[in-house]
Write a structure and sequence with these properties.
9 helices; three-stranded antiparallel β-sheet; alpha/beta; globular; five-stranded parallel β-sheet; binds zinc ion
């Protein structure tokens, strides 16, 4: 990147807690990671947490599996409890970035309340806009490591093993075109109200997620900078 710090130094020290939303395949995980590194934030990924539950043998695991295997979102109470725990248990000095949550209006309202009650103040919400067509195209190429969940973008099924942990690289079970379409439709319905809510609060930043990873990151950082100028 040409300019290393698009956000001024003094703005970096007062960066809000962040929430990044977008359909699966929008690249929110990658963008969250980049922002976490740039601003020294603690990245919290609800999807990852759910996948951890799925691979466990808890009683929750079955309940989550039933929903997610239909292409639906996970039971909301699990995500809700997890978010609350993260917001309250981490030191306030540790600024957080939530990737993919809260998605539903109820969760969003609660999360905002928790952010304030915990003394963290109001978070900023970034939404990555990506068309269904682009999502389908991207997810067709998405593979993950069965062990460490690292995401790989590949044109053909992989012949090699994960370069981080040596695990097997597989297609995610919920990454079939039919389930992706279900997920997208469900996401749109759920997230529409949530975005409206954040917009009304004046804390929503919308970004074109169809650009390259670097371009998208730049737009996010620029818009965060603009927000602080207001
Ligand atoms: Zn791996």
């Amino acid at each position: 990147m040409a300019k290393k710090y698009l956000v001024k130094k003094e703005d970096q020290s007062k960066i809000n807690n962040l929430i990044i939303l977008g359909p699966s395949g929008s690249g929110k995980g990658t963008q969250a990671e980049l922002l976490a590194r740039k601003f020294n934030l603690k990245m919290l990924d609800g999807g990852e947490y759910l996948r951890k539950i799925l691979s466990s043998k808890s009683k929750e695991s079955k309940r989550v599996a039933e929903k997610m295997n239909k292409g639906n979102l996970a039971p909301t109470d699990i995500i809700r409890d997890w978010m609350k725990m993260q917001i309250f248990s981490r030191p306030i000095s540790r600024v957080l970035i939530f990737s993919g949550q809260p998605r539903m209006l109820g969760e969003a309202k609660l999360a905002l309340k928790w952010f304030q009650e915990s003394g963290r103040g109001i978070p900023l919400v970034i939404f990555l806009k990506v068309s269904n067509r682009e999502v389908l195209k991207r997810l067709e190429k998405r593979y993950i490591c069965a062990k460490c969940k690292k995401v790989y973008t590949l044109d053909a099924p992989p012949k090699k093993f994960c370069k981080i942990c040596g695990g097997k690289i597989i297609k995610r079970a919920d990454d079939t075109p039919k389930l992706i379409k279900n997920r997208l439709a469900y996401f749109k319905i759920q997230v529409a109200q949530t975005l409206k809510f954040f917009k009304k609060k004046g804390i929503l930043i919308e970004v074109n997620g169809e650009q390259s990873v670097v371009e998208t990151h730049k737009e996010i950082v620029r818009k965060i900078g603009d927000y602080f100028k207001k």
